[in-house]
Structure to design on (229 residues):
């Protein structure tokens, strides 16, 4: 099992450009999450999904959109990138609600917006 | 929403000594408290977790204690080793109407093990 994978690993964007980050998991997990990690800030929840076709906002959703068209994939989109979105993005998944099951994290995507 | 405070931000201990990291949370509805270890450039990995119906949990050199009344929980690492050097994050569950609780993380503790 590959677990949770993320593509790309690194990306540099110019302000105003758009991009999509892909998260894939092969553990048949129901729940998936997107977090961002900034220096000294820990990880903050952006959006999450409780299953195929469903998404919901987390703590810091502004400027991001997500889609979960397939159970194994969770996409994070930036429509018009801003320097404030420079961060490391982590995807995670869990079998059901994390309250009862461990969240497994992907390796991260380092995004720089110039 | 949930707020998690973590202290200290940096902790330096001699190899073989114990390390204690403390966290407090604000939402009394939180019922799950995991601890993650993150090495430089790597992903966070779960090292231990505790649910609100338990006061203490131990796994070899690592233990976590939870005081629900005071809304604080702590990570204890005994007999520290060089490979324990990393950033440690505490987290608490977010209760949401959707039923898929996210996690609110503390800002992290950089644990340094001195040889």
């Amino acid at each position: 099992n590959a677990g949770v994978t993320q593509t790309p690993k690194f990306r540099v964007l110019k302000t105003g450009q758009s991009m999509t980050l892909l998260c894939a998991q092969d553990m048949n997990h129901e729940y998936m999450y997107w977090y961002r990690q900034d220096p000294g800030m820990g990880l903050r929840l952006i959006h999450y999904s409780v299953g195929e076709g469903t998404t919901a906002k987390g703590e810091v959703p502004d400027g991001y959109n997500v889609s979960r068209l397939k159970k194994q994939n969770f996409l994070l989109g930036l429509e018009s990138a801003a320097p404030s979105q420079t961060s490391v993005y982590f995807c995670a998944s869990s079998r059901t609600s994390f309250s009862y099951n461990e969240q497994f994290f992907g390796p991260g995507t380092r995004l720089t917006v110039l | 929403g949930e707020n998690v405070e973590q202290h200290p931000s940096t902790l330096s201990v001699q190899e073989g000594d114990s390390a204690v990291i403390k966290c407090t949370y604000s939402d009394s509805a939180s019922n799950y408290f995991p601890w993650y270890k993150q090495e430089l450039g790597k992903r966070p990995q779960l090292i231990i977790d505790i649910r609100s119906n338990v006061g203490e949990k131990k796994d070899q050199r690592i233990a976590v204690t939870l005081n629900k009344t005071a809304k604080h929980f702590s990570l204890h690492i005994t007999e520290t080793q060089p490979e324990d050097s990393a950033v440690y994050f505490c987290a608490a569950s977010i209760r949401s109407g959707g039923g898929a609780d996210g996690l609110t993380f503390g800002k992290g503790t950089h644990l340094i093990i001195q040889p």
In short: The mean pLDDT of chain B is 91.
